[in-house]
Amino acid sequence: MDTAQPASSQSLRMPVYWAAAGLVLVLWVLAMLRLDWWGMFAETWPLTLTMVFGSFIAGATAEGGGAVAFPVFTKAFGVAPHDAKVFAFMIQSFGMTMAGLVIYLRKIPVLWHVIGFGLAGGVFGLIVGDTFLALPNPYPKLFFSLVAGVFGFFLIYNRWIVNNAPSEHIRLRRSVQLTLFTLTGFLGGMISSVIGVGIDMMTFILLTLLFGVNEKISTPTTVVMMGLLSVFGFLWFGAVKSEINPVVWQYWMSCVPVVIFGAPFGAWVCSKIKRDHLIWLLLLLIGVDLGSTLWVVPMTPERIQFLLVSTLIASSLFALLLWLRRFVTDEA
Description:
332 residues; mainly alpha; single chain
């Protein structure tokens, strides 16, 4: 696995990012001039402001920008869930891939083999989920927020009660390990097909609880993976299915200049802060996400039952992952 490089070596690579960001900005300005969409900011500025925060979160944590965009867009701004999901893929394909470029250029440690197997499962899961998964709203968002909330408690237990030394790498030598990451990617891809995020958090959970990977390594790993899956999602809904609402293009154009800087900045911050600070940031975001979801989604007996069953299943699965960790070693 790559190790951190001297600051002077890193600074020599950063012009590549600035050149890429400059190219995106030039193309964006040309497109805005051609379409004459400048007046859209009178209506879309709240979405742009939302993605200032959302893009930072996308680059700095395993939550993903869509975890901010999907609930805010659907509940606060009345955007249709399908449009919010497609927007998440569109905007993450620029913001999180630019964050991934910074991660690569600065040689921030990531698990590239995990990305490869997880992404393979994620692409297939996105296609299958979009084709066959018919889970009505708001159950997908309820499920994601609840799973993340339950994981938050296990993250606290893992860091401050179990308190094992975190692993810095994984050697995937067994077919069962490869299958685990592929299946996790598949599940994350299915969730992403509904709400625009998911593969990042699902992979982060597996890396943290089963393999005990340092959160400062698993976070950029999931950022790169979600960014690459978002590129595929953008192509899937845009080129293959042609399901992008014309107004979503305006939402996207109003946020592109923000996310190409916000997500890379988040990735840089993630690489600089201490492990515990990163964990606290993630816990804060998980708490805000879960609290806001439970606040804006009306509770019915059926939804309460769904939450209880999901809590039981997630807790049992996470406890099993922690128990199985004792049988997982770097040499396995």
